[in-house]
What we know:
- The protein has seven helices and 14 strands.
- By secondary structure, the protein is α+β, with helices and mostly antiparallel strands.
- The strands form four sheets. It has a five-stranded antiparallel sheet with strand order 1-5-6-10-9. A five-stranded antiparallel sheet has the order 2-12-11-7-8.
- A hairpin with a 3-residue loop joins strand 11 and strand 12.
Amino acid sequence: MDFRRSFDSLAGEFGRRRFLIGALASGVTLARAPRIFAAADFWNSRDPSKWSEEEIEILTSKSPWARLTEPSAKNSEEPVAESGGPSAGGRGGSSMGRRPVSTIVIVRWESAQPIRDALGAPLAADFEGHYVLSVTNLPGANVRPTGRGGEAPPDDALDRLQNGATLQAKGKDPAEAGIARRTRIGSILFGFSKDYLRLTPNDRDVVFRLDTGQLTLSVKFDPKEMMYHGKLAV
């Protein structure tokens, strides 16, 4: 099986999560990880066909286009669901708690060309003309409404996530997410129209923020580091 095309499968995603957990356990901090693993800039020195599986994991997990972060509890008095699903309640324990579970979230710039080259698959057509960022392993993100019959019920949780997502460069107005979609591995894709936010290599502190109502996260990207073969890749 082609590694690039299998990387966004469930097995590929779980493998990446194990890679991240192992890296963190070995002492690589969230702040240091991007520079440690991206130091060689292999994405600019070699053709994508020559990238190793480990390098693809690095590029798509800890690089200028992918950040690790830990969400913060917005209100510690409200229970927060673990990423595996809602509380079972009753006997056998509960996956809800008064404090958020300790979890590592991956925020990745899916529309960036090096990420597309690594994964080897295009984005959906409705993301055309958008910056697209994904959030993986977000607590509660896999909780979906269940319905009866053939028609799926409205995904109110996804609407709330979309309403809580913004992208902003320093000195520019924030752009709100115009599109939000779930992937088959449980990640959430957020699309931000390029008509409302034009990014250049001279921009500073491009920040993605997400407020779920229970959790908040904020991740900063540096356009100067996001250069791919001489062009800004976002």
